[in-house]
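Q: Here's a chain of 149 amino acids. Please give me its 3D structure as C-alpha cells.
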Amino acid sequence: MVKDSEKDKVILLDNGADDYLTKPFSLNELMARIRVAFRHKHSDKGTQVFKSGKISIDYDKRVVRVNDEKIKLTPKEYAVLTLLARNAGKVLTQNYILKELWGPYYQEESQYLRISIMQIRRKIEDNSSNPTIIITEPGIGYRFVADYE
C-alpha cells in the first residue's frame, strides 16, 4: 500500500521513520538520501570507548589498551573480550559465547573458548593464573569484572 498523503508521512515520521521517499523517485535521490543517513549515523555515534580499571577498548578503532599501552589481540580474542566487556558484571555462559562468536555448531567446543580466554588473560591480567578481570564461573561461563563492582 502506497502512503503518500501528507498525513501519512507525518504519522510515519512521528512514529520513528528517519525519512520518507514517495514514488516516483530517481536513483540519484535515493543514493543521496542513503549518503545523508550514513553521515548522520557516523556523526551521532561519537567515539565509543569502554574503560574499566587499567583496560580501555575503543570500539570504533578496534584498539585495546592496558595501562595505556596498545595490545595485540587476534580477531577472535578481540571478539571474546568485547562481548564480555559489553556485558560487564554479567555471567555469560560458555554455550552463549560459543554460539555468538563461533556459531551454533560449536556450542560443544569449549576448548576453543578456554584457549581464547587463556590468551586474553596473558595479555591483560597482571597474573594470568590468578585473574581479576575475566573471572571463570565454574560450570557456567565467564564474567568481566568492571571496576565499579
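Q: Can you summarize the key feature?
A: The chain has two domains: 6-45, 49-144.
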